[in-house]
Every structure is written in structure tokens, then in C-alpha cells.
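Appendix B. Chain record.
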Amino acid sequence: MRMTLQFLGATQEVTGSCHLLEVDGRQLLLDCGLIQGGKADQLRNHEPFLFDPKTIDAVVLSHAHIDHSGRLPLLVKSGFSGPIYTHKATAELCAIMLKDAAMLQRRDAERLNKKRAKQEMEPIEPLFIEEDVDRAMAQFVLLDYGEVARVIPHVDISLSDAGHILGSAIVELFLGEGAEQKKLVFSGDLGRAGMPLLNDPCLIDSADLVMMESTYGNRVHRSWEDTIEELKQIFSKAISESRGNILLPAFSVGRAQELLYLFHLYAREWDLSRWEICLDSPMAIEATRVYLNNYPLMDDDFKRFTRMHPGQHPLLSNVEFILSTDESMRLNEVHKGLIIIAGSGMCNGGRIRCHLEHNLWRPECDVIICGYQAISTPGRAIVDGVDEITIHGKSIDVKATIHTVGGLSAHADQAELIRWYSHFKDRPPLVLIHGEPEAQNGLVDKLNLSRSICPDALAIATYGDKLDLSGLPELIWVTP
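C-alpha cells predicted for this chain:
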């Protein structure tokens, strides 16, 4: 039985997750995400797929983040008509996130078409529209953790909690039948042990091949205790000195809810009653309600609170939801005492850009960067220490104090990735995906230092690589 795996996204980069599995002539996609970053990166989303969407039999989606799910409407628009298997909480979040992505695609096209009309150029179409999202959502098939489902002939899957965001999944795929069966484990994005809100990532015992993310493959995060102390010091200094506003660019799904929970847990210790906390992101607000409706998936501390305090929700205890644009704009008239959580997490869109425009040039303000910043994004430029950035066509000086709080990352670090992989028996072959070259090379070097952990076969996937799965336990690459 012929079985191949081709890597078509998130190869030596951290966005655009997409992998094509072929088993006995049937084709299955693992994820179908948008490429994020600068304008040149985003233009790659308009390039044709390296496969015919009409020939794809099914999709398995690891989680809702847009770099994993964002091209599903385009896949459907291009002729894919099969099922999309995912966790039920992921489907709820996708309904929010993909609609938002469609709105942004439509607005971007409208803005570009005004410029093109002045130059007497043909108009362009958005990548996809809201109707494409509706069609894609109608194709979702909802699964629970631990449920086994046959997704195409000769391929069964089971999802386990990845601990990254609500509904995120490690995907176990059982390929073929009987003695020929191979087990492929796709990590998706792995979370971290001991983080608030979510459960720890599940550990898997066996595999014939592991595809593992490597976002922070060359880095060890600060401990959770040190991170809490770091945040306490940031807030204490701002409060004691009556400084300006604090901005937190945050991913609308995952990071925003984690921050709200921390503000609930440490409200008294951080003296947050003297501050107004605003969640300024309609999508994050909708996602927060999905989190609340799925509280049985949360960690034990969260569930214990909801049992002891019926009707009270830790994500709603001390925050003001900012829904309208007018409400958001009014925040820019306040010069101190605000903690503003706003999207997007990499500062390349959303309401955070307006708040940066009004606060980034003010030395008394603070900006807390608490998530991964991809190359070519404004957030990455701020972290790298640029003196100015361009927002809405204007040059803005970077005078605010910039804090990079890596301990809040929702991605496993180098030690946690190695710990997760080391739980597999017999050191199965390992292919690294979803990481920039420096991070991946750092992880390879660390793995190679330990004979007891280092895989017998180890590779970094590059775009278009195709792997012959029938040749495992060696890694045999075939011509695409």
C-alpha cells in the first residue's frame, strides 16, 4: 500500500500549516492555514495550491488558530467538498475566526481596489468571503478527545488534548491495515505544562513517525513563577509611578483569555483595582464566551472555581468589554490608568494598531509583548528594538517601555518539546515542522547531545518534501 506525506506549509517558518497525506490513492490534508507576516508573505496565500482541491477527500484540523485553519474557506471555494474533522470546541472558535478573516479579506480588497481604480487597473477579488466560510463550516465533523473516527479508507484518527488553546489537538493517525499499519503522530501546536486555564499536553506512547512543531526549539521560557513575578513588577512600577497606559497585543483566541484569567487570579496582589482593564477586541470577546461555554475542558482550578461560585466566571470578574469602534476610539482620549488587551497579537492588524499609534511614542507608557512575533511583522520589529514603525501611513517613534514576557507563551519550549518527544517508546523517526531555521537547528543540536533521546532518524521538513511512509523506520524522501 502506497503511503506518502508531503509538507506544504509551516516548513522552516511558523505559519501556513498544511501537510498532504496520501494513502492508497486517497488524499487527506492535515491543517490548511493562512500564511501570516508582511505583505509579501501574505501574497503567497493567493498562489495556487500545489494540489487540486477537488481531489482532497478530507481534512483534519488540529486547532482554530488562523495559521492552521485560515485557508479552509479558500479550499472550499476552490472545489473541496469533503469533511473537515476537528474537535467540537475548535469548530466553535473557527466559526468566529474565519468570519473575521473573511471580513478582513473583503476590506483589504476594497481598499486595494480603490487604488487600482485610480490607476485604471482591474479589480481584485478577496481571497474568500463570508459565504465561503459558511460553506466550509457546513463541512465540519465534530469529534471529542479520545474518539476514534475513520476519515478516509485505511485511515483512522484520534484526537488528544494539546494544551495550546481550547480544543487544540494532537492527532494520532493509523494508516493502513494489519501488519502494514503505520502510526503517524502530528503534534499540532503543543502547549505547556502548568499553565493556567488549560490542561497539560497529553503524552503519547507510540508512533512510527512523529511530526512535531518547533516554534521555540532553541529557547527555554522563564518559569511560571518568574513570569508572574515579572508581570507583578511591571504593574507595580506603573501603578506606583502613576505612569501611562499599558498595552497588551494579544491573540484573540488563547492569549486574551489567559490574560483575563491572570487578572482575576492576581487582582489583589497586583493592585489592579486602581486600573481599568479593557478587552478591546470583538473577536476575543466572542471567543471568551466560547471558553466559558466549554468550561469542562479547562484545568481543575478553573472548574473548581465555577463549582464553588455558581454563576461567577473568572474570565469576567474585572474586565470591561469594548465592542464598538466608537468605544475603542474613546480609549485613546485616556492617558493613564488603562490596561488595554487588543488584537492582533503580532500588531499587524486589529485595534491594537490604533492604541499603539496613540501610546507608543509616549515614554510613560508600557507595551507588554507576550506572544510569538513572526518575521516581518510590526510586533517583531518592536521586539527587535526599532526606533520607529509605520502605522496607518504615519511614522511613530517607539518611546514606550517594551517588555517581552516570553513566559506567557502558549507554545512548548525546547525542554518541553524534548520532554514530550522522549515519552515515545523506541525513539521513532522525527520530522520538525512549524519553526524558523534558527529554532529548528537549535533543537536538532540539543537532541543530538543525548543518545538516549535523539531519534534514530531526524529531519527538518522543507517546502514540497515528500516522505515515503512505507519505508519507515528510515526516512526515505521521494521526488515530489
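Further analysis of this model is presented in Appendix C.
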